[in-house]
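TL;DR need structure tokens for one chain.
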Amino acid sequence: VQLVESGGGSVQAGGSLRLSCEVSGITEGTNFIGWFRQAPGEQREGVASIYNRGGHTFYAEGVEGRFTISRDNAENTIYLQMNSLKPEDSAVYYCLSGTNDWGQGTQVTVS
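>> reply
TL;DR here they are.
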């Protein structure tokens, strides 16, 4: 399984970004995809996740109501729509599949 993130960038506080995680090598394990982030000097933390079967989604407390995770199976892509961004959202964002494969990450900077 390979995961490739994109869509990061620099925005002002209050702005929006949409991250994409393109998944190749679909297996049963890719039923679960999660978004994580890691700021400098901090541990990697979970942000949001989605299950393909049932479409169940989960959000970390600090992003619920601002971030939305979604999945386009036709495009094998998982999205993370991030609105009302705050400086504390600045981090490298990674996606993780249920096969324990990680993408290379995409940088998000909020000023």
